[in-house]
Amino acid sequence: MGAQIFYAIGLMSGTSLDGLDICYAKFVKQGSNWNFEILNSETVPYSSDWERSLRNAIHLSSEELLKLNVDYGFYLGEKTQEFILKNNVIDLDLIASHGHTVFHQPQKKFTLQIGDGRAIRSKINKTVIYDFRSQDVIFGGNGAPLVPIGDELLFSKFDACLNLGGFSNISMKRDGKRLAFDICPVNIILNEFAIKIGKKYDENGDFARKGIIEKKLLETLNQLEFYSLSHPKSLGIEWVDENIPSLVQSQEPEDLLATFTEHSAIQIAKTCNEFEIKNALITGGGAYNSFLIEKIKAKTKTEIHIPEKEIIEYKEALIFAFMGVLRSQNLNNVISSATGSVNDHCSGSIC
Question: Which Pfam families match (predicted)?
Fold first, then answer.
């Protein structure tokens, strides 16, 4: 049987609100083996208005949120169309969109990623696949993490894949099963403290490096209930809003950055040590935070691999493109051992 070739665009908006990640990739299926090539990629920074709208979406009325869902879908379609024209994309089977997470409460059986796929489809005459998380939550899962299917089929040479985005999450194979779960918040908190200094993020962890660790705060953070829960488990902005603001009052931003960087490093290294991870591929914006990486390396024997820029920045968008390809072929694209749902399944709404 000959190779099957698919071309797809993946769209990803993370909780850290860095911008919209767009990844155009080629996927080749030969038997049961999959390979990929990133052909073009780009991050479209959010305007101040869009960043504000997405950040405040959790506080909107039902009517306002419904409007934002459609407006953001049109925005995704417009930006994708611009990307297609700029890069002269001709071969394209589908667009797969993660959307932007507003609510994530799997314990109550709901999660919401805005960006209506029908609005995207209205701008581009191609198949659009979206809403990848809801079905898993309805099936009793966390709706996250979803990228382990890509780790399983595209990045299997690593003992574990560790993403350092708004939240850190890890994916690994143990006893024939793919395990995955969120570890702790990272950039969603670090970026907030950097903004207080007048920066969008703490480049290289330079401000954290100058700060003083607040030992009492660090101890309180490490004792938060989430860290004692068994996997699978996931985090959302609601968890941050519920647990963090009351803990940080008058501390200096540099000291908060130092403390939360230490906290993240402790939780990430603790996970690596607990599962005796030999080597880990690190992606996401946190891979550029050299101070955080130094601290993780100092606390674990796990060999850390930092890949090329394209993989660091676009691995999640790449995997959502891949999930779209799997959905289009009616192949399972969600791993139940990672999310906690009743069984592996094929998820995503097709437009």
Answer: AnmK (PF03702)
Domains of the chain: residue spans and CATH: 4-143+331-350 (3.30.420.40), 149-310 (3.30.420.40)
pLDDT in tens, 222-266: 999 999 999 989 898 899 999 999 999 879 999 999 999 999 999
From CA 47, how far away is CA 75, in angstroms rounded? 12
Q: Where are the alpha helices (DSSP H) in the chain?
A: 48-55, 62-86, 117-123, 134-138, 148-154, 187-196, 206-210, 215-222, 237-243, 253-274, 290-299, 309-328, 336-339
Asked if 282 and 164 touch (Cβ cutoff 8 Å), the reply is: yes
> What would the DSSP string read from start to end of 62-81?
HHHHHHHHHHHHHHHHHHHH
Question: 54 — phi, psi (to 5°)?
Answer: -70, -40
Which DSSP state fits 46?
Answer: P
CA distance 89 to 111: 32
Global model pTM greater than 0.70: yes
What is the rounded CA–CA span in Å between residue 343 and residue 126?
A: 30
Q: Where does 171-252 have alpha helices with state H? A: 187-196, 206-210, 215-222, 237-243
Tell which residue, 20, 3, 18, 16, has the closest CA to residue 317: 20
Query: Do you know the residue count of the chain?
Result: 351
Residue identified by tokens 């459609």 is 70
